[in-house]
């Protein structure tokens, strides 16, 4: 049922968390303005500033335009599409998000974008907060495959990385520190629920994919967004997704098929996968998943779920 009340929601997540399919679902809501990973890309800009320029990138854009222009070039190379310098500034992002006048605003962002005490002061006011989690045993195999294809496409594989089996995702932190994905998300959740949004909602990807109608409607109720049956299916359209706010130029960009190939082939939420056995996984995936599991399990215990006997519940 569609609500007449305006709403502002940020969904914090990790890579390979089913968040793009989730965003396609949310984009079915009339009068919703979509923002994709603004703080996540700002964090990637900071990483590239340190590696490529040897400097710490200030959070403020004004007065640092030339540096931001250089760093935007590095991020564009790392991501495979052209980024606009001003969209990579934490202060600009906060001000922009707080000034949006659309009836509904949905921001999907990477929790690693809020890494460190100097970043969290730029969390925008006026938003409800939610977290989309996924079992690390499902996240890291997909991440390994995605980043192998991506770094191969932009010619950044190391000499010893001859194929996907010999690729080690731990060697490539240009797009974020993979070892910190889940810890950063747990830390951000703890911070937000203590001082910003005590009712911050946690949603598990497997729950969503197993029962999308009931779980999505429960989530929408919890965060104040309207739910409608039309949110359960879509026609994935690169042009539509390119019209969302990504902070970059989508014309001719080459990385979309690598990062979002499965979503482009989907028309609805697909049934959840079972984790692979350990002997099917590479050493980097095993190490990253095992280190992440305690943080995932802590958040999992607090997720929203739908109990058949008692209705919607929180863990």
Structure keywords:
315 residues; alpha/beta; Rossmann fold; five-stranded parallel β-sheet; two-stranded antiparallel sheet; disordered C terminus
CATH fold type: Rossmann fold
Give the DSSP E fraction (strand runs of 2 or more residues).
Answer: 5-15%
How do the strands of the widest beta sheet line up side by side?
A: 2-4-1-5-6
Overall geometry: globular
CATH superfamily: P-loop containing nucleotide triphosphate hydrolases
Helix percent band: 40-55%
Q: For the residues shown, what is the average pLDDT? A: 88
Structural class: alpha/beta
CATH architecture: 3-Layer(aba) Sandwich
Helical region count?
12
Topology as H/E string?
EHEHHEHEHEHHEHHHEHHEE
CATH class: Alpha Beta
Total domain count: 1
Ends distance: 25 Å
Largest sheet: 5 strands, parallel
- List the uncertain runs: 308-313
Q: Please count the beta strands (DSSP E, at least 2 residues each).
A: 9
Q: Determine Rg (CA atoms, Å).
A: 19 Å
Structural summary, described in words:
By secondary structure, the protein is an alpha/beta fold. Residues 308-313 have low confidence and may be disordered. The longest helix has 18 residues, at 136-153. The strands form 3 sheets. Strands 2-4-1-5-6 form a 5-stranded parallel sheet, with helices on both faces. Strands 3-7 form a two-stranded antiparallel ribbon. The chain has 12 helices and 9 strands. It has helices at residues 19-26, 38-53, 65-79, 90-98, 117-120, 136-153, 181-195, 205-210, 212-223, 238-242, 256-264, 283-300, and strands at 7-13, 32-36, 82-83, 104-110, 128-133, 201-204, 248-249, 304-307, 311-314. Helix 2 (38-53) crosses helix 3 (65-79). The chain has one domain: P-loop containing nucleotide triphosphate hydrolases (Rossmann fold, 3-Layer(aba) Sandwich).
